[in-house]
Design brief:
Largest sheet: 6 strands, mixed
Number of strands: 6
């Protein structure tokens, strides 16, 4: 009885509408976006596809927005193994050149993914962010000159919806590289 009274008092002390004001971003919504991101990245360079390392992970952070993270190998190449004990200089150059060539397409696809994700996440408030971070996979033998380790893009949902409607430029999406 005492516990019920305490819980009742605690609920009464909450500001009016605080529970109703919270957006209802469900795990199902986030999972649908995770799968969508994986599919878009997997098919980016078909039939010579990029390789998704693991699966995209997403989360909704109340007050910030939706965040999605993935890891991609833009140009899968054989690693060192008993069947491929050394990597030849031409393989190193070919892998590097392919990754450099594909970075621009990855950036464009990331912008498109953000715009489409914002349009699909109805219950994320317009002032909150939608963010996508892609970590790039590299073998230890790879030449990483001119290649980022990670690309992170984000923008407020309302800006992304404006870009989808054609009233804002996708170039306004914040992009950071590390």
């Amino acid at each position: 009885m005492k516990i019920a009274a305490i819980v009742s008092l605690a609920l009464c002390a909450l500001p009016a509408g605080s529970m109703a004001d919270k957006p209802k971003v469900t795990r199902t919504m986030v999972e649908a976006m995770e799968k969508s991101v994986d599919g878009r990245l997997q098919n980016l360079f078909a039939p010579d596809s990029a390789e998704i390392v693991g699966v995209t992970q997403g989360a909704y952070i109340s007050g910030y927005g939706a965040v999605f993270m993935s890891e991609v190998n833009l140009a899968p190449a054989p690693g060192i193994s008993p069947f491929h004990p050394t990597v030849k200089p031409d393989e190193i150059k070919r892998t590097h050149d392919k990754k450099v060539e594909r970075i621009a397409a990855l950036r464009n696809t990331m912008r498109d993914i953000l715009v489409d994700t914002a349009a699909s996440l109805d219950s994320v408030p317009p002032d909150e962010q939608v963010a996508l971070g892609i970590s790039l996979f590299y073998w230890t033998w790879e030449n990483r000159d001119g290649l980022p380790a990670q690309i992170v893009m984000h923008a407020p949902k309302k800006l992304l919806l404006q870009a989808k409607a054609g009233t804002a430029d996708k170039g306004a999406i914040v992009s950071e590289e590390f």
